Amino acid sequence: MASKAFFDPLVLLRVAPVLTSTMAMRFSHDQWLFLDTFLAPGIRERSNEIVPSYFKTFFMKGIWDIGILYTLTTATGISNVCSKSSGAWKWYAAGTALAFSHMAFVPFIMYKVKGLVDDEPKGHGNETLRGWLNIHTLRSWITDIPAWTCFVVACLKSLQPL
Questions:
Q1: Quick count: other Cβ atoms within 10 Å of Cβ 78?
Q2: Residue 53 CB neighbour total at 10 angstroms
Q3: pTM of the predicted model over 0.90
């Protein structure tokens, strides 16, 4: 049987939402970094035609990462809320609600995604990408960064000695 001196499952539970939300934020930043590059002045003209096919490939691969990360973040956040760890459970609840709110932006972003994937309207890939990036950035600042902050505070509160 594993000793808590080497591995404590409760510590893993407390840290898990911090890890998964950190990974989600990193992925979110990478999306912005790599996709915004297509809109740079020296590239914009040439990228307008390739943006839809690139985005389709990029998005179809990345949607699984996002789905898994936000599912794990929400699940471990809820698990921490249910365990009512000292005063930290409220921070876990706030972080979980914010992480779940990431999905509330789906109605605002799904038409941009569909437009990019279907390349509609033709020849407007950069415009549609700019619209997607604007919502993506707003969502990151409103939900993802505050969720991560809440999880860090919760983790620190839950792991401090009594």
A1: 15
A2: 13
A3: no
**CA-to-CA distance for 62 and 113, rounded, in angstroms?**
13
CA distances from 118 to 54, 55, 121, 153 (A): 11, 10, 8, 42
Taking the C-alpha atoms of residue 51 and residue 35, their distance in angstroms, rounded to an integer, is 8
DSSP letter string, 23-46 = HHHHHHHHHHHHHHGGGSTTTHHH
Q: How far apart are CA 10 and CA 69, in angstroms?
A: 20
Token pair listed for 45:
């003209």
Tens-digit pLDDT profile for residues 68-98: 999 999 999 999 999 876 789 999 999 999 9
Which residue type is seen at 59?
Answer: F
Distance (Å, rounded) from C-alpha 11 to C-alpha 158? 9
Helix (H, G, I), strand (E, B) or coil at 80: helix
